[in-house]
Specification:
Layout: E1 9-10, E2 14-19, E3 32-40, E4 44-48, E5 58-65, E6 70-82, E7 89-94, H1 101-105
Antiparallel strand pairs: 1-3, 2-3, 2-5, 3-4, 4-7, 5-6, 6-7
GO molecular function: cyclic-di-GMP binding
Pfam families: PilZ
InterPro entries: PilZ_domain (IPR009875)
């Protein structure tokens, strides 16, 4: 059932998520969602959602890690959207080659576990 490349760490962090348009039209602040993470890993983040998001949707994220770890500008793609246990969640596969992806990676050890 679990098919993950890296271990997940349950963390409730604040983030803003913007759905990126398929074409190069502008994105407004009204397109931004303010969400909470469900868990994080080196290559992905799952978020709690108020409404479904279609898989393969590109997103832009601003994740604020607690404990003075900073705020990270990330890009990714919605990999899945489901409602296990009655809570709507989406899994976002991160593109670690863009924006703060490498800084985000520095918070994980060689095995992919989050370093507190």
């Amino acid at each position: 059932m679990e098919n993950r490349r890296y271990p997940r760490t349950h963390r409730e962090e604040s983030l803003s998520l913007t759905l990126l348009p398929a074409r190069s039209s502008s994105v407004s602040l009204e397109d931004r969602l303010y969400l909470t993470t469900h868990d994080v890993s080196l290559a992905g983040i799952s978020v709690e959602l108020p409404a479904p998001i279609r898989p393969d949707t590109d997103v832009e994220l601003w994740v604020a890690l607690l404990e003075e770890h900073g705020t990270y500008h990330l890009y990714g793609t919605v990999a899945w959207c489901a409602a296990p246990d009655g809570h709507l969640l989406a899994g976002i596969a991160l593109d670690l080659e863009r924006a703060d992806g490498r800084l985000w990676s520095a918070h994980f050890d060689q095995g992919g576990a989050f370093c507190e």
